[in-house]
Amino acid sequence: MSMRRDQALRALAEHVADDIVVAIYTTAFDWIAIRESPLNYIMTGAMGLGSSHALGLALGRPDKRVLVLDGDGSLLMNLGSLVTIAEAAPRNLIHFVLQNGTYEANGAHPTPGSDRVDFAGFARAAGYRSCHVFDDLATFAARIGSVLQEPGPVFVTMKIEPGPPPKLDYQYMHSAPVREAFRAALNGSH
Fold first, then answer.
1. Which residue in 129, 63, 70 sits closest to 92, CA to CA?
2. CA-CA distance, 130 to 141, in Å (whole number)?
3. CA–CA gap between residue 177 and residue 28 (Å, rounded)
4. Quick one: pLDDT at residue 48?
5. Which domains can be identified in the chain, with CATH numbers?
6. Over pLDDT 70: what percentage of the chain?
7. Which of 59, 62, 68, 72 could be 22's S-S partner, Cβ–Cβ 3.0 to 4.6 Å?
8. How far apart are CA 53 and CA 34, in angstroms?
9. H or E, element range at 50
10. What is the CA 131 to chain-centroid distance, rounded?
């Protein structure tokens, strides 16, 4: 059983409404192609910090659901954020880690321990309210709606394979209009 990243993100997008979505690296490019929104907080160049940024947004906007689409390599660089998130216990934070066993954005080099790391186990031990693991698209699509209704912090491991290479438009991602649209949407949606 397996699921491609783009297919899993499409299944997730069906359940995302007026949510803040923190998407990083290669996943960010797939996400903005699937679901463009001014509430997408998209980033590269800060590997490991997606979960920390999402925590700040969740605490700053407790009235909005915040989803972070983290990478396994990225989370490995900031495992301490799991403990910090669990301690803060934001009920509006859903933390996804897309596990493909590589630092995909940096040449697809394998992550250490990729055949045995249990990210949901890390999150559970840190104190997340609930943790889930999906490696099958049909099961993920059938259950993600109910998972998104659970009080956070919720952790979801998505064992994925890369889909077709996304268009890597760094100029768009880092443009002033994208940042301004996010700021305006964040401040204007009280």
1. 63
2. 18
3. 17
4. 76
5. 5-188 (3.40.50.970)
6. 87
7. 68
8. 22
9. helix 50-60
10. 14
